[in-house]
Design goal:
With about 160 residues, this protein is of the alpha+beta class. Helix content is about 35%, strand content about 20%. Strand 3 and strand 4 form a beta hairpin. The chain is globular and about 40 Å long.
């Protein structure tokens, strides 16, 4: 059965005072994907998340006490197939102690609401093929993957 958001989960933009709570979750997210992100990259990411002019944004999921349970980072960008901005959901992470409680679903649902309110063309993302836990959630919030395969040239 798909997870249902807990009624006390509150979704809101990340704030300037959230860095100390966000960083350990970011570190856990990077560890999950077995990547080592330079501290300068993390500092730059945090600065982008605080810059209203940046296309890189973040939402947090909080419990009733205000503790951050998870986050999503997303990038708004133009596209060649339409006139609306589209949203790339780049990172989605839930504190392991809060998994299965609707945190990830609440973050995605809020992003979709924002997109509808602001006239975005679509929200899209990708995940590792082997990430079965995330894929169960993703398959429950959309009709599934769109059949595209991602290719990467590292520069």
């Amino acid at each position: 059965m798909p997870e249902s958001p807990r009624p006390e989960i509150k979704i809101e933009p990340i704030g300037a005072d959230d860095e100390a709570a966000w960083r350990p979750l970011w570190d856990q997210y990077c560890a999950f994907y077995q990547v080592s992100v330079d501290s300068g990259v993390t500092t730059t990411l945090w600065a982008r998340l605080q810059d209203p002019a940046s296309p890189v944004k973040a939402l947090t999921a909080r419990d009733a006490a205000g503790r951050i349970l998870g986050f999503c980072h997303y990038v708004l960008h133009p596209n060649t197939w339409g006139t609306s901005l589209i949203c790339y959901l780049e990172d989605l992470f839930t504190d392991p102690a809060s998994r299965g409680q609707g945190v990830g679903r609440a973050l995605i649902e809020r992003l979709v609401v924002l997109g509808r309110e602001q006239g975005w063309g679509r929200v899209y993302w990708h995940t590792q093929e082997t990430n079965a836990t995330a894929r169960r959630l993703y398959d429950s919030v959309t009709d599934g993957a769109d059949g595209f395969v991602r290719y990467v040239i590292r520069l």
